[in-house]
């Protein structure tokens, strides 16, 4: 593919001598990034929710619902899918945006060098966050450090104002004909992403568009008159030549970025240097930090200057291309510097910032600056003035002794363990005899070959202890835990559980405590089923080899929900096709509830979520929910079922069947409608009427598919209880807008889809081969 533009865009109009008209807003970093996206007017945003970056998409959804922008917002099935959406959209020749954090960035990571290597610009906002494991949702830099070798330009935004401004710079830099690369704008998760500040935003849309100019025209698959190949297979020497061009583009960016920053300053009145230098004019001791921590260090530098100490702070606004020459110049007269990294490059004696500053200084034979490397602030640990003073003091000590002491490399802020004190003991394990009480008796019907289940009386089951102890932190009325307790009532023997990330995981395992009295594993949304399937096969292999002896096989259960069957669908289907002896149980609460009720593929049509907002221009989610039970049934599993926490006997019978099949034949899947009063916007105690209405309206039919035979377990039509779907929708705050006269056509469409799916289930129930 030709790397030269077919036609160059006109140069952006020269900024006026006075800054553009602006207005004051009180905004967080995420809100600032969303406002920048609105003002830029992207064509497409591909996204997937992950804390703490999700608010970018949420704010854009609110604005879109009110008609404030017309960006096409496409919710991916996961961050990897969202990255693919963005790549495809950017190939189409428009302006493209994404936002992510932490594992989301890592999940998308293999797509990033694809986009850089094929020279396709876009903008990615990263609210930087700690990388699992263990899971931590607060801010550090361990995510975007992984992306430094992907070929993307990386800009660093230290505060909400910079998060706004640098998005505009990102467009100009990435689209410059000599650069033509995707650009990442990184700001600190929860420090910058959520803290509000007064910022200035543009109040002259025409001037903004003149500043941005038109996107250059490059080859595109949408140009059918000039067909081209994008991402061809390459051998030696083609690939190395491609990377030479990528390296040359980065080198060109070194000259382009300062010029665009200068234009941005003229346009906004706010200066941005490639390397931010604070009180460095005669500094003998310096501190080098990225983003928000540098602002804390500046305050300490002011105080130390008042004491007569010559200290200063350096902080890069650009991490790629790395400002090596700027660091060499800034540190020329500095005796010692402490470099703080909010992430470690394990085993390298420092994080990326430290390693690259040291490498830069090595090329300057006249520079004798002593460098100390410190790892700080991991997992969102605060960096306060006292910490900044320690960094200055350590550098001053090194300067005075003329050697890099105290230690050249160390962690700052870690706490020492206490001698003789180990980990706290967990909850006492639950014994098999405590929970194996014969609450469900499973037999085979000789005539049909299907299983029959006899349950003990419900009152008797209440004596059975749960495998999850009391004391979890779930919201009042949360349906996940009644569901899990019902499941526990009938599962017999030893059970090993894997919880994907979600509400049920978060509220039961806050370190150093746990609510689980059995073996528990966590893995992220996207790979839970694969992880558990590996454990299942290791168990059976060790038994086969005689390395592990059991009287009775344990039951392996994966608990998923909160949208986990979107990002985790691929791994789950892989496990289903391999037919491992395990159970996948999904508590379906119709959204990504653990991150604030964003749109999931399980969210029904027109329902309100924080990324499918309702307003004068939009009525909520714009496509129907995914029928996961039918998807798994099409994998020809031994057993698939749907259930509801509101029908406990039906649910427990099905779980007993599921355990029987999972231990003898292969994978089983169950989808359980689960109440979420917080995000469904109902009263905490409204589970019974709301769930019953969902079932009586036939929106959520109760059925099972046993060896390919579908059996309807409850028919509201024959029971004389069938209700229109509107009767259910009007019971929840998230759907009240659907039953208004203005949305009569939307309601009619929902009713039609419910009727269609219900008719298919009834037809399968009535046909002997379905």
List the helices and strands and how they pair.
Blueprint lengths: L21 E6 L1 H12 L3 E4 L6 H12 L6 E4 L3 H13 L4 E5 L1 H7 L3 H6 L5 E6 L24 E4 L3 H16 L7 E6 L8 E6 L2 H8 L25 H31 L6 E4 L6 E4 L3 H15 L4 E6 L1 E3 L3 H7 L5 E6 L10 H11 L7 E6 L9 H17 L7 E3 L20 H4 L4 E5 L6 E5 L2 H4 L18 H11 L4 E6 L2 H4 L13 E4 L4 H17 L10 E7 L2 H4 L1 H10 L4 E6 L39 H6 L5 E6 L3 H17 L3 E6 L3 H4 L6 H10 L6 E4 L2 E4 L12 H5 L14 H23 L4
Write structural notes for this entry.
The chain is 36% helix and 16% strand. It is α/β, with parallel strands linked by helices and 770 residues long. The protein has three domains: 232 residues, Rossmann fold (3-Layer(aba) Sandwich); 137 residues, Rossmann fold; 312 residues, 3-Layer(aba) Sandwich (Rossmann fold). Helix 3 crosses helix 4. It is globular and about 90 Å long. The N terminus is likely disordered. InterPro entries: PFOR_II (IPR033412), Pyruvate:ferred/Flavod_OxRd (IPR050722), Pyrv_Fd/Flavodoxin_OxRdtase_N (IPR002880), THDP-binding (IPR029061), TPP_enzyme_TPP-bd (IPR011766), Transketo_C/PFOR_II (IPR009014). One of its GO terms (biological process) is response to oxidative stress. GO terms for molecular function: 4 iron, 4 sulfur cluster binding; oxidoreductase activity; thiamine pyrophosphate binding. Keywords: 4Fe-4S, Electron transport, Iron, Iron-sulfur, Metal-binding, Oxidoreductase, Pyruvate, Transport.
């Amino acid at each position: 593919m030709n790397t030269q533009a077919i036609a160059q865009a006109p140069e952006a109009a020269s900024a006026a001598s006075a800054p553009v008209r602006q207005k004051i807003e009180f905004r967080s970093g995420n809100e600032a990034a969303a406002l920048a996206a609105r003002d830029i007017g992207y064509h497409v945003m591909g996204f997937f929710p992950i804390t703490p970056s999700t608010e970018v998409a949420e704010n854009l959804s609110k604005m879109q619902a009110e008609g404030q922008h017309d960006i096409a917002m496409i919710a991916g099935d996961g961050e990897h899918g969202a990255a693919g959406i963005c790549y495809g959209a950017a190939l189409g020749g428009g302006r493209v945006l994404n936002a992510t954090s932490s594992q989301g960035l890592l999940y998308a990571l293999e797509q990033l060098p694809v986009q850089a290597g094929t020279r396709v610009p876009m903008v990615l906002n990263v609210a930087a966050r700690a990388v699992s494991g263990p899971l931590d949702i607060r801010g550090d830099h361990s995510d975007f450090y992984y992306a430094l070798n992907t070929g993307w330009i990386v800009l660093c935004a230290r505060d909400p104002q910079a998060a706004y401004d640098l998005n505009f710079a990102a467009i100009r830099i990435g689209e410059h004909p000599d650069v033509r690369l995707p650009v990442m704008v990184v700001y600190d998760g929860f420090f910058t992403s959520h803290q509000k500040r007064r910022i200035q935003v543009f109040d002259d849309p025409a001037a903004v568009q003149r500043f941005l100019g038109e996107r250059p025209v490059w080859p595109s698959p949408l140009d059918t008159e000039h067909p081209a190949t994008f991402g061809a297979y390459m051998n030696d020497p083609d690939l190395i030549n491609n990377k030479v061009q990528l390296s040359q583009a980065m080198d060109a960016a070194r000259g382009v970025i300062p010029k665009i920053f200068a234009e941005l300053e003229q346009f906004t009145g706010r200066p941005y240097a490639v390397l931010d230098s604070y009180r460095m004019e005669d500094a003998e001791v310096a501190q080098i930090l990225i983003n928000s921590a540098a602002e804390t260090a500046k305050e300490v530098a002011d105080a130390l200057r008042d004491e007569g100490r010559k200290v200063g702070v350096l902080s890069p606004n650009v991490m790629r291309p790395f400002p090596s020459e700027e660091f060499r110049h800034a540190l020329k007269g500095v005796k010692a510097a402490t470099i703080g990294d909010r992430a470690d490059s394990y085993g390298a004696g420092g994080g990326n910032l430290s390693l690259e500053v040291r490498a830069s200084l090595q090329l300057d034979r006249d520079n004798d600056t002593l460098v100390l490397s410190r790892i700080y602030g991991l997992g969102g640990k605060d960096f306060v003035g006292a910490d900044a003073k320690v960094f200055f003091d350590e550098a001053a000590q090194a300067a005075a002794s003329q050697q890099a002491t105290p230690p050249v490399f160390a962690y700052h802020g870690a706490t020492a363990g206490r001698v003789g004190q180990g980990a706290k003991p967990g909850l006492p394990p639950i014994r098999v005899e405590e929970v194996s009480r014969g609450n469900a008796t499973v037999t085979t019907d000789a005539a049909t070959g299907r299983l029959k289940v006899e349950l003990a009386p419900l009152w008797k089951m209440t004596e059975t202890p749960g495998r999850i102890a009391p004391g979890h932190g779930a919201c009042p009325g949360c349906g996940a835990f009644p569901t899990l307790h019902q499941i526990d009532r009938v599962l017999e023997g030893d059970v090993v559980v894997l919880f994907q990330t979600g509400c049920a995981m978060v509220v039961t395992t806050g370190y150093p405590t746990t609510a689980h009295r059995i073996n528990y594993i966590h893995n992220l949304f996207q790979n839970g089923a694969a992880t558990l399937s590996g454990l299942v096969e290791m168990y059976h292999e060790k038994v086969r080899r005689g390395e592990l002896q059991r009287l009775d096989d344990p039951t392996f259960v994966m608990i998923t929900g909160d949208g986990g069957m979107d990002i985790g669908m691929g791994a789950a289907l892989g496990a289903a096709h391999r037919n491992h002896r395990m159970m996948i149980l999904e508590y379906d609460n119709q959204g990504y509830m653990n991150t604030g009720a964003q749109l999931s593929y399980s969210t029904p049509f027109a329902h309100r979520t924080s990324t499918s907002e309702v307003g004068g221009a939009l009525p909520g989610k714009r496509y129907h929910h995914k029928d996961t039970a039918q998807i798994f049934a099409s994998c020809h599993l031994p057993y698939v079922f749907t259930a509801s926490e509101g029908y406990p006997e039906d649910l427990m019978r099905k779980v007993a069947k599921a355990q029987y099949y999972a231990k003898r034949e292969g994978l089983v899947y169950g989808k359980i409608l689960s109440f979420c009063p917080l995000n469904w916007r109902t009263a905490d105690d409204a589970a019974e009427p709301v769930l019953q209405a969902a079932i009586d309206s036939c929106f959520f039919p109760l059925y099972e598919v046993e060896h390919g035979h579908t059996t309807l377990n409850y028919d509201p039509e024959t029971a004389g209880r069938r209700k229109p779907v509107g009767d259910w929708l009007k019971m929840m705050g998230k759907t009240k807008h659907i039953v208004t006269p203005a949305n009569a056509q939307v309601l009619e469409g929902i009713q039609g889809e419910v009727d269609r799916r219900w008719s298919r289930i009834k037809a399968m129930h009535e046909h002997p081969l379905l």
